[in-house]
């Protein structure tokens, strides 16, 4: 069978959406049939993703692959245009993997199960579309459509303050999305040719002032999703009210949409403006790391503690993408995938713990490790991964960002020393609040009132399987990061080159270094931004 011209990405996007439309007519009363149906659909789509990657993706090619383009609304130059490169392919695979596990994590759901799994499958296709579409107007549409399932999943299946959390989420994200539409229209109509195609937009010669305005508009929209302080306040509320499978989708996929869009639009299409904004991104990244770590340390609610921990770890993404080095940019992409796996595992364990203790307050726990030894072991492993223990994916990602930024020739030495020192402080805070959290939950004497009133049963096989499935890539990437970095190395190298070409001093240094004898290249010194 010749699969070279098969529309893989279109099929992968539309299959779960089409399958979700059949859920209302499924003969099911207690939710058992529909959950198996959703899981099988998720597995099939994930298998299609893996097969398309294995057969049709060339690791050495930096440009778009598996590309498809069909005229949709020719009068508006709106095309169904999809494709995958090193920035999107790892996140498409992550989406398939995480959504399938989230479907399995949703096994206990009994409230409106048909609607729940309908939203999960619709969200599945929408999130893959965000990473795959290559038309700016189409990107805005799928970005907006993806918000609806999240809003309903929060508003219907959330906690006591679910309506507040869902409303805050939709106001922040939909409000930010308006900036995407305005910027997309402005860029499309700039110049002589009207186009929404991202590759055509990247080739346009935008004036610097125009780029700055467009960069600021995109940044506001994507900073909400990433999230970057001060646009972060929706996230602790959303996580505070979400259920375990929704937690996994929020931490594992939703936040990565913001980082991906920053790389795709701000860095890839507006490189000259990125040069101007890069120092601010670095500073905001450090603020994320330290402020969120300190806030997490002070939280007594388990969900909010892990939510602020997520915000802290995403600070490394902005530092890496502003480093102007391939190592730093590669570390940023690796951190997105790594955090997706680690964050999802921690939030799943929060849900599993709450199902047994019926409390999220650390003050009401204590000593539960004696009754829940498997859950204690899984919590320990996932917490060690989150604090970047060597041998885990988080360690490799954060180390790459640190070294990439520290060796960058785009900033002066004083700025780099200050940033690295402050980021290191945030790294030191992480094991403090995570290990103290483990101590308060599992160690010490048992809380007699909790033990007497709650059935503290240990983990069931389904829960052990989900955490094991997440820990395998976490540890695998930790010991052999090339298994992931080779997916996007060609793309990040090309993107770094494009960025450095936007900085005259870096271009001059590269040209000067290329003319030196090999034994002198290591001592070549270039002017630094800020000197």
TrEMBL record:
<comment type="function">
    <text>NDH-1 shuttles electrons from NAD(P)H, via FMN and iron-sulfur (Fe-S) centers, to quinones in the respiratory chain. The immediate electron acceptor for the enzyme in this species is believed to be plastoquinone. Couples the redox reaction to proton translocation (for every two electrons transferred, four hydrogen ions are translocated across the cytoplasmic membrane), and thus conserves the redox energy in a proton gradient.</text>
</comment>
<feature type="transmembrane region" description="Helical">
    <location>
        <begin position="417"/>
        <end position="438"/>
    </location>
</feature>
<dbReference type="GO" id="GO:0016655">
    <property type="term" value="F:oxidoreductase activity, acting on NAD(P)H, quinone or similar compound as acceptor"/>
</dbReference>
<feature type="transmembrane region" description="Helical">
    <location>
        <begin position="169"/>
        <end position="190"/>
    </location>
</feature>
<dbReference type="GO" id="GO:0008137">
    <property type="term" value="F:NADH dehydrogenase (ubiquinone) activity"/>
</dbReference>
<comment type="similarity">
    <text>Belongs to the complex I subunit 4 family.</text>
</comment>
<dbReference type="InterPro" id="IPR003918">
    <property type="entry name" value="NADH_UbQ_OxRdtase"/>
</dbReference>
<feature type="transmembrane region" description="Helical">
    <location>
        <begin position="464"/>
        <end position="481"/>
    </location>
</feature>
<protein>
    <recommendedName>
        <fullName>NAD(P)H-quinone oxidoreductase chain 4</fullName>
        <ecNumber>7.1.1.-</ecNumber>
    </recommendedName>
</protein>
<keyword id="KW-1278">Translocase</keyword>
<keyword id="KW-0618">Plastoquinone</keyword>
<keyword id="KW-1133">Transmembrane helix</keyword>
<feature type="transmembrane region" description="Helical">
    <location>
        <begin position="336"/>
        <end position="354"/>
    </location>
</feature>
<dbReference type="Pfam" id="PF00361">
    <property type="entry name" value="Proton_antipo_M"/>
</dbReference>
<dbReference type="GO" id="GO:0031676">
    <property type="term" value="C:plasma membrane-derived thylakoid membrane"/>
</dbReference>
<keyword id="KW-0874">Quinone</keyword>
<feature type="transmembrane region" description="Helical">
    <location>
        <begin position="375"/>
        <end position="405"/>
    </location>
</feature>
<dbReference type="GO" id="GO:0012505">
    <property type="term" value="C:endomembrane system"/>
</dbReference>
<feature type="transmembrane region" description="Helical">
    <location>
        <begin position="210"/>
        <end position="232"/>
    </location>
</feature>
<dbReference type="InterPro" id="IPR010227">
    <property type="entry name" value="NADH_Q_OxRdtase_chainM/4"/>
</dbReference>
<dbReference type="GO" id="GO:0015990">
    <property type="term" value="P:electron transport coupled proton transport"/>
</dbReference>
<dbReference type="GO" id="GO:0042773">
    <property type="term" value="P:ATP synthesis coupled electron transport"/>
</dbReference>
<feature type="transmembrane region" description="Helical">
    <location>
        <begin position="275"/>
        <end position="294"/>
    </location>
</feature>
<feature type="transmembrane region" description="Helical">
    <location>
        <begin position="87"/>
        <end position="108"/>
    </location>
</feature>
<keyword id="KW-0812">Transmembrane</keyword>
<dbReference type="GO" id="GO:0003954">
    <property type="term" value="F:NADH dehydrogenase activity"/>
</dbReference>
<feature type="transmembrane region" description="Helical">
    <location>
        <begin position="306"/>
        <end position="324"/>
    </location>
</feature>
<keyword id="KW-0472">Membrane</keyword>
<dbReference type="InterPro" id="IPR001750">
    <property type="entry name" value="ND/Mrp_TM"/>
</dbReference>
<feature type="transmembrane region" description="Helical">
    <location>
        <begin position="115"/>
        <end position="132"/>
    </location>
</feature>
<dbReference type="GO" id="GO:0048039">
    <property type="term" value="F:ubiquinone binding"/>
</dbReference>
<dbReference type="InterPro" id="IPR022997">
    <property type="entry name" value="NADH_Q_OxRdtase_chain4"/>
</dbReference>
<feature type="domain" description="NADH:quinone oxidoreductase/Mrp antiporter transmembrane">
    <location>
        <begin position="134"/>
        <end position="415"/>
    </location>
</feature>
<feature type="transmembrane region" description="Helical">
    <location>
        <begin position="6"/>
        <end position="27"/>
    </location>
</feature>
<keyword id="KW-0521">NADP</keyword>
<feature type="transmembrane region" description="Helical">
    <location>
        <begin position="244"/>
        <end position="263"/>
    </location>
</feature>
<feature type="transmembrane region" description="Helical">
    <location>
        <begin position="138"/>
        <end position="157"/>
    </location>
</feature>
<keyword id="KW-0520">NAD</keyword>
<feature type="transmembrane region" description="Helical">
    <location>
        <begin position="34"/>
        <end position="54"/>
    </location>
</feature>
<keyword id="KW-0793">Thylakoid</keyword>
């Amino acid at each position: 069978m010749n699969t070279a011209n098969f529309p893989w990405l279109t099929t992968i996007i539309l299959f779960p959406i089409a399958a979700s439309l059949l859920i209302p007519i499924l003969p099911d009363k207690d939710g058992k049939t529909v959950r198996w149906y959703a899981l099988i659909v998720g597995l099939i789509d994930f298998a299609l993703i893996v097969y398309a990657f294995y057969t049709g993706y060339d690791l050495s090619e930096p440009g778009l692959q598996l590309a498809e383009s069909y005229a949709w609304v020719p009068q508006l130059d709106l095309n169904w245009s999809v494709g995958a490169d090193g920035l999107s392919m790892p996140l498409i695979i992550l989406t398939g993997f995480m959504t399938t596990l989230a479907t399995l994590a949703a096994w206990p759901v009994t409230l409106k199960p048909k609607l729940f799994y309908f939203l999960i499958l619709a969200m599945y296709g929408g999130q893959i579309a965000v990473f795959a579409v290559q038309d700016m107007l189409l990107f805005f549409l799928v970005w907006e459509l993806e918000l609806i399932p999240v809003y309903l999943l929060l508003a219907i299946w959330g906690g006591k303050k679910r309506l507040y959390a869902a409303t805050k989420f939709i106001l922040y994200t939909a409000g930010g999305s308006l900036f995407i539409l305005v910027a997309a229209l402005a860029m499309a109509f700039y110049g002589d040719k009207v186009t929404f195609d991202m590759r055509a937009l990247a080739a346009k010669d935008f004036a610097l002032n125009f780029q700055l305005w467009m960069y600021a508009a995109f940044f506001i929209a994507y900073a909400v999703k990433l999230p970057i302080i001060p646009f972060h306040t929706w996230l602790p509320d959303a996580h505070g009210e979400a259920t375990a499978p929704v937690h996994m989708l929020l931490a594992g996929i939703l936040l990565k949409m913001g980082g991906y869009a920053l790389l795709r639009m701000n860095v890839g299409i507006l490189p000259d403006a990125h040069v101007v904004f890069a120092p601010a991104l670095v500073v905001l990244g450090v603020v994320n790391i330290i402020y969120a770590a300190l806030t997490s340390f002070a939280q007594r609610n388990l969900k909010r503690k892990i939510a602020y921990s997520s915000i802290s770890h995403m600070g490394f993404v902005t530092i890496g993408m502003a480093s102007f080095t391939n190592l730093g940019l590669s570390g940023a992409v690796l951190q997105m995938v790594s955090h997706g796996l680690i964050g999802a595992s921690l939030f799943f364990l929060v849900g599993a713990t709450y199902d047994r203790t019926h409390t999220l307050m650390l003050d009401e726990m204590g000593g539960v490790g004696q009754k829940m030894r498997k859950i204690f072991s899984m919590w320990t492993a996932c917490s060690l991964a989150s604090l970047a223990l060597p041998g885990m994916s988080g360690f490799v990602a954060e180390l790459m960002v640190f070294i990439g930024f520290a060796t960058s020739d785009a900033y002066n030495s004083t700025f780099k020393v200050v940033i690295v020192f402050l980021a290191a402080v945030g790294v030191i805070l992480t094991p403090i609040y995570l290990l103290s959290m483990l101590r308060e939950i599992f160690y010490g004497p048992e809380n007699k009132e909790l033990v007497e009133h709650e059935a503290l049963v240990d983990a069931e096989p389904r829960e052990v399987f989900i955490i094991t499935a997440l820990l395998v890539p976490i540890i695998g990437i930790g010991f052999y990061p090339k298994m992931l970095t080779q997916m996007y190395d060609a793309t990040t190298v090309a993107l770094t080159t494009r960025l450095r070409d936007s900085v005259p001093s870096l271009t001059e240094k590269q040209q000067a270094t290329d003319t030196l004898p090999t034994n002198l290249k290591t001592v070549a010194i270039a002017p630094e931004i800020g000197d």
